[in-house]
């Protein structure tokens, strides 16, 4: 985080607080301003995206491990909630939390298998998870309803549909706040420092004594639980579950796209990405109506983000703003190992290779020793 | 209990299917070997090749096999271009993760464009010999399946010979095994990596044509292929071409036999069960692959 | 409304939704019953994605209906206007589309989408806003078990009853000619499975053995293994609970194995115009249920076939006919209730009228039970002399049923 001289820092904090309060005010007043229930459903869809990508960002943002399979946890959360309500006859919101706990438990062996190996295998496992869940929920029709679908009873049966939307809007908003709070707390904790060390250089983090495997597993489970909460809440709101729509790789990919677009290192990155992508999806569908070009747009957007701004728009924009305002570069920057390596490689082209620049470690690093 | 002839029939079908899996998995392994890239778009290119074969057949009536003359070089060039223009521009430190996303985005673009050009309708090439079959020790083997298998086997053999017995193959293997060392002994590893990538994509062209002979194609079909293929390369040991081929055969055969007792859907889970079992028991894969340890 | 207008409307709708500036804007027009305003009808259809092919068929059927109605001066003297959105074959989208049509765009009436998987979530939206929901494509039993009060299926029979005439025919055959064993293969889809299992239940009750019972996922493209099991069972009859391409693939795979059943019945696939070419013209004797025939002599059908052919350059198929039927059913209710608007009283009048009355349509007279299930039956067609012809029931047949079926 930029640490500048006192005054700009003070104003910066005030600005941020103001923006936060304004954001909350807008979010809270949205339902009363929406002209019809339809706008509420758009709001709910975007909030759902935001919770999902924020949940994804527990793994993606802190550890740098990219999971394309979080759609599976959302689907599992939805199905577990639905099944607990219909078969277990639990009250809806008890079922929601029980299902999140169940998914968290399930995430332990999945994480165990996926996190033992680095990178490539992790991604493969994450994709496989979605595909296997799709197969299981389709095949095990006697339990899950299979392709006939599963109907989740309404938690508030007496309410009109529009009232129902309004309640769920606030529930999603609450869940988003909870997820953001959890992310914020981890971000400032010792645990978070350790995780970020993994992101920058897992080998070094390990050699410095960070229990990398345990850390990764814990944050993976936390991420799965939040994703399941979002999925379960969506299931309660939407009411009709079908394996084909619940276990889709595409939904997992959208979470990644949103988080990456906004910026995985930032608390509000995924939220921002969700607003942009949620709106963009709708817009591309409008403009290009009945063609499958929305896939092309999503693909191109993802490609552009990966190629040109892998740190997301927030750093890109803040960098720009900083330059315009003339606050300039701060003394301590947060840089990735990758950037450092790139810089070093460039320098090494001129300088002798054994001449290493020192003292430019990411600030998280020094505090991971235990 | 299934009869002996049915079991035999299933074994034959399993081997035929395994051959196609093996070829495609070999391509995926090549990408991973030369670049440490998990190429999600591999199966999207597979479907693209199948569409090209179908389209050429529909428009001109040429045998789909002839499209190979165009698609194989075309895909090779596309592979080299993709490696050069896209993948080498990613930061080396995050290459493995980011390349997944980048190739994922390529897959989405291909799927979207195929849907745009040909709509979501399922397509199938109609050949004079579509329903012809041969008797093989009491099992019936469809001619088209046999051609597809022959194509896959020939391509795999060609790949094997190329990698074993040519200078380029040596350089390619050296690059896969130890890129820095290969560079030190004077191999232009960047160029070799590009060609390796092109070669991988060329397998998708062959596989796609083989696929188009006997099955239906539609734009989102590639999701159906990528899962089993990725499971195969992990089970085989990331980066090991023979490992991938053996795993492909084994799993293809298992899937085919399981279908006798289980439903088609359950039988598909064999790939993922094998994947999770491999990672839990032997993360480096069952057939070689030193590479997997680190990646 | 032109396409661009429609688009800009939606852009505006969205912009306001997210930019939160829409509080003051009025909602869309059409809710007041002025005689000059067109009646707007909202539809969401899978125009892209997995169900796009039948989705487009339904779209053509709806468009043909709107044109024919408008050419005759409209409904209640008002023009009808369709507002069709694309749901990308996705359940989330179909719900959001109907929310938009009903909430934001204030359409007067809604028509149903395509595919059971989309009909249930869509019907729930209409139900909860109290709108009549007549749909052309949700034939699976689950659709009618949801407790929907406003739903009507605009086709002759639900999926499980499609083969009723064939079941009766088989069970009436003399012992020696009756198939003794049957192999079933059905797509894991409520509709396709429903058709095959409807027949299975009836034949099993009649004492005919089931020797293979396979369910395959919709994404199956290789039918080698399933075909091998069917062929190895040597079943006298094969029944495919298929959509289109899977039926073709299964038949080709069976032909590759040189399996020769005495009877072969497949849903949907054999009635498609492309079918004969797709399986290399080896169609002779294949049976299929259908809810519609272009040759039916119901009064409105002649008109429909003629005008449809004029508009689209080819004759309508079942999807188009079911969509048209949906239009006819709603139109009949609107004429009888003399209203077309979203308000509860009007919609209740429409629902109530349909509960108690029969409607003349292109698929024959339709009436419904209290769950919205239509009470007629499907006809059985067979490929005879290179042409698909109606063979059952007796009263409507164009050719005699050929049994046993010639080799393919």
What is the topological layout?
The complex is a heterotrimer of chains A (370), B (295) and C (408).
Chain A: H1 6-33, H2 37-63, H3 70-86, H4 92-115, H5 120-139, H6 141-144, E1 150-151, H7 161-188, H8 190-200, H9 202-207, H10 212-238, E2 240-241, H11 243-246, H12 249-262, H13 269-287, H14 293-308, H15 313-325, H16 337-350
Antiparallel strand pairs in A: 1-2
Chain B: H1 4-35, H2 42-60, H3 68-85, H4 95-118, E1 133-136, E2 139-142, H5 143-165, H6 167-177, H7 179-184, H8 189-214, H9 222-236, H10 241-261, H11 264-268, H12 270-281
Helix pairs in contact in B: 1-5, 1-6, 1-8, 1-9, 1-10, 2-4, 2-8, 2-9, 3-8, 5-6, 5-8, 6-8, 9-10, 9-12
Chain C: H1 3-19, E1 39-45, H2 52-71, E2 80-86, H3 91-104, E3 109-111, H4 116-128, E4 133-135, E5 151-153, H5 164-172, E6 181-187, H6 190-205, E7 209-216, H7 224-233, E8 237-241, H8 245-256, E9 263-266, H9 275-278, E10 286-290, H10 299-312, H11 318-337, H12 344-356, E11 359-361, E12 364-366, E13 379-384, E14 387-392
Parallel strand pairs in C: 1-2, 1-3, 3-4, 4-5, 6-7, 6-8, 8-9, 9-10
Antiparallel strand pairs in C: 10-13, 11-12, 13-14
Characterization of the model:
The complex is a heterotrimer of chains A (370), B (295) and C (408). Chain A has 370 residues and is an all-alpha fold. Chain A has a single domain (30-325), classed as ABC transporter involved in vitamin B12 uptake, BtuC (Orthogonal Bundle). Chain A is built from 16 helices and two strands. Chain A has a two-stranded antiparallel ribbon. In chain A, α2 (37-63) runs parallel beside α7, α4 (92-115) crosses α5 (120-139) and α8 crosses α10 (212-238). The two termini of chain A are 23 Å apart. Chain B is an all-alpha fold. Helices cover 72% and strands 3% of the residues of chain B. Chain B has twelve helices and two strands. Chain B has helices spanning 4-35, 42-60, 68-85, 95-118, 143-165, 167-177, 179-184, 189-214, 222-236, 241-261, 264-268, 270-281, and strands at residues 133-136, 139-142. With 408 residues, chain C is α/β, with parallel strands linked by helices. Chain C has two domains: 3-12 and 27-157 and 297-366, Rossmann fold, CATH 3.40.50; 161-290 and 379-396, Response regulator (Rossmann fold), CATH 3.40.50. Chain C has helices at 3-19, 52-71, 91-104, 116-128, 164-172, 190-205, 224-233, 245-256, 275-278, 299-312, 318-337, 344-356, and strands at residues 39-45, 80-86, 109-111, 133-135, 151-153, 181-187, 209-216, 237-241, 263-266, 286-290, 359-361, 364-366, 379-384, 387-392. In chain C, α9 links the parallel β9 and β10 (286-290). The radius of gyration of chain C is 22 Å and the shape is elongated. The chains are: A mainly alpha (370), B mainly alpha (295), C alpha/beta (408). Chains in contact: A-B, A-C, B-C. At the A-B interface, α4, α5, α12, α14 and α16 of A face α4, α9, α11 and α12 of B.
